[in-house]
Specification:
This is DUF7224 domain-containing protein. By secondary structure, the chain is mainly alpha-helical. It is built from 20 helices and six strands. It folds into three domains: about 25 residues, no CATH class; about 260 residues, no CATH class; about 160 residues, no CATH class. Helix content is about 65%, strand content about 5%. The strands form two sheets. The protein has a four-stranded mixed beta sheet, covered by helices on one side. The chain has a two-stranded antiparallel ribbon with strand order 1-2. Helix 7 runs antiparallel to helix 10 and helix 9 runs antiparallel to helix 10.
């Protein structure tokens, strides 16, 4: 009898049974989902992300490389679109609640619960937009996604609630019509201007990078953690403000003012601590978030050319994304070894891709290289200090650099590589070249080996 009465009471009073309320929230997301600006801005935001990925020129290098870490870092740059859009959307939602008086009147749920519920549609939209960016880019991946790459992706996702926290603070203190554009601008400006200043750790804290990574580098975790720490600091500030705001209607104006002053001081302290921690994490990395790569190399033994050069098997170790070039690299290496063996210049039986400064026959290849470029890369591996010489990373004298250039050109001529340059304009090069030409073939081999050893010692 009581059950029937209860049912009729629900029916007569117009109150919906509990099961319908739960079903409505589960299937349709409830009022925050149906009324959020994120539902109406979803398609424009996703379209903007797709257009950005398709038109962003540095992404072409990452796509061509096939390297997962480079692709992830480039795809993460889509935050330049996602963060301002999510910030503007959430600022509009919160400003609408504030204008309607919902944030200032007592209600059954805490203000923090109301804000979080209102922000869920925007957060889901931002995460889905980043997933679209990663999907478009990683579809061309030729290497495994590592734990470093996954953490970097998580770092980009954490930036979304951090941007929403900035939007929340703006919406609480500014007019409702000004909050969305102001939140968009304030989330956009740090992304654009942080890479333009000489304070490099700010770029890591910002988490936005224009370019990807070379194949011999991997994403360093400390710069990613620096960005995460600052993002968490922004979210903590937002939580503090919401908690104080939610209790301001229960106390006198004087007490409320004192609480807001303490809240402001607390937010300043939290952000200073977050920035100092982020700076300590990111400071050793300059402007580049990479470190030497430690995994992802595939080695394969190739048949040598023992009949003509006396060499047996050749071991070729390339990064996963370049493994399709293994046979072409082995073929060019056998030819180069044959030319060098003819003049008495012996070479290792193992050729590898590795970080700059590694010992042995170290090369750097790219999927877009043709046969001629591959041969030049292989010959350059015999004097692998060249990239660091050209970028000023070696402490060398002018005389040793001139000797290095002469030795480099000799290797090019012997192996049939078209890498000759006009050295006539380099002061002092003619005298070194004249002395080198006066040596016998065997003396030239000894001289070139001595020069390469000298350069390697200077670049350690």
């Amino acid at each position: 009898m009581s059950t029937t009465t209860t049912f009729h009471n629900h029916t007569n009073t117009g109150e919906r049974p509990r099961v319908n309320v739960v079903k409505r929230h589960v299937l349709w997301g409830g009022t925050p989902w149906r009324t959020s600006a994120a539902m109406y801005c979803a398609l424009p935001v996703l379209a903007a992300v797709v257009v950005y990925i398709l038109l962003y020129h540095p992404l072409a290098d990452s796509l061509r490389s096939g390297y997962a870490a480079s692709m992830v870092l480039s795809a993460n740059s889509a935050i330049i679109v996602v963060l301002p859009c999510c910030g503007a959307i959430f600022a509009w939602d919160i400003a609408s609640l504030k204008r309607g008086g919902i944030l200032s009147v007592p209600h059954g749920r805490s203000l923090l619960h109301v804000v979080v519920s209102r922000g869920m549609p925007t957060l889901v939209l931002g995460c889905f937009a980043m997933a679209v960016a990663w999907g478009l880019v990683l579809a061309h991946c030729r290497s495994m996604v590592t734990d470093h790459d996954v953490i970097a992706m998580a770092g980009a996702l954490i930036r979304i609630p951090a941007a929403m926290s900035v939007a929340l603070l703006i919406a609480l203190v500014s007019p409702y019509w000004l909050a969305p554009p102001l939140a968009m601008v304030l989330n956009y400006l740090p992304i654009v201007y942080a890479p333009a200043v000489d304070i490099f750790w700010l770029q890591h804290v910002n988490g936005f990078y224009y370019d990807g990574l070379p194949s011999d580098m991997q994403i360093a975790l400390r710069p990613v953690f620096a960005s995460m720490v600052v993002s968490v600091g922004l979210m903590m500030c937002a939580v503090i403000v919401v908690l104080v705001w939610g209790t301001s209607d229960r106390v006198s104006a004087k007490i409320a003012t004192g609480r807001f002053v303490l809240c402001a001081l607390g937010c300043v302290g939290v952000m200073l601590a977050a920035l100092l921690a982020g700076r300590a994490l990111a400071l050793p990395y300059g402007s580049f978030p990479g470190e030497p790569r430690t995994s992802g190399q595939v080695c394969e033994r190739m048949p040598g050319d023992s009949a003509s050069s006396g060499h047996g098997e050749l071991t070729v170790c390339l990064w996963q994304e370049h493994h399709d070039l293994a046979k072409a690299v082995a073929r060019q290496t056998v030819e180069v070894r044959g030319h060098l063996d003819a003049v008495g210049y012996s070479t290792p039986s193992r050729i590898v891709e590795a970080a700059p400064g590694s010992s042995g026959w170290v090369i750097g290849v790219d999927n877009a290289m043709d046969e001629r470029q591959l041969r030049m890369a292989i010959v350059n591996g015999l004097h692998s200090t060249t990239p660091r010489l050209e970028t000023g990373q070696c402490q060398v004298t002018s005389e040793s650099y001139l000797r290095h250039l002469v030795a480099q050109q000799w290797l090019y001529r012997v192996t049939g590589v078209d890498g000759s340059t006009n050295q006539g304009d380099i002061p002092g090069i003619d005298a070194v070249q004249h002395d080198f030409d006066a040596l016998s073939n065997s003396q030239k081999v000894v001289w070139v080996r001595a020069v390469m050893t000298e350069q390697a010692d200077m670049c350690r």
